[in-house]
Amino acid sequence: MGLQDLPDVVAAHRQHFPNGFFARLGPRFLRRYYRTFLDGPLAVALIVEVSGVPSGYLVGVLDPVQHRRLLLTYHGVALAACGLFGLMRRPTVLTRFVLTRARRYLTALRRSRDRVIESVDGPRIAVLSNVVVAEHARGLGLGTLLVDAFLAQARDVGRDRACLVTVAGPDGAGSFYTKSGWQHTRDATGADGQRLSHFERDLSEMV
């Protein structure tokens, strides 16, 4: 994925996740959000094309803790400015942010002040953040192609497991991930009250 792909990616995000918090902040915030995946050494940003037409994308991170530190260091001010701009233009979204996310985001900012890289015991986990395949290109295996490429990169850099979250029930992609070898670990209620399904994949099983 490159800068030239961001308009298509933002449009696809707004089409497929219209009720998500990031989409409600508007296209300006989404463009800045997806830019954070383009230059991060611990991020993955992929585009798939059919006959030269962008038909799907995937973004994820190979080390969530370190990626978050780098994101806040190099993109934090710009991302916060775009987010604040979106909130000021949308009072209902601002209210929702204060009620559901403000404390968590402030905690993350405070932690970012500690630039010491800490070793963490336990499995090293990669996170698949978003994957979308355009409706006209479904059934061609593009989703599997994107996810497999992400998992291969995660395995190559020494990740033990990968995880993701999707909407629970028929509106989500749980059946796709189950068929692809992911393990459903739990359901939980997200910040916006939506039921979410959590999945994991053991990368040691990949050949």
Automatic annotation (TrEMBL):
GO molecular function: acyltransferase activity, transferring groups other than amino-acyl groups
Stored Gene3D superfamilies: 3.40.630.30
Keyword line: Membrane, Transferase, Transmembrane, Transmembrane helix
Domain N-acetyltransferase: 1-207
InterPro entries reported in the protein's UniProt record: Acyl_CoA_acyltransferase, GNAT_dom
Domain of life: Bacteria
First and last residue of the signal peptide: none
PROSITE patterns assigned to the protein according to its UniProt record, in alphabetical order: GNAT
Keyword Zinc (UniProt): no
Glycosyltransferase is among the record's keywords: no
Transmembrane segments: 37-59, 71-88
A Pfam family per the record: Acetyltransf_1
Protein name: Acetyltransferase (GNAT) family protein
Originating species: Nocardioides albertanoniae
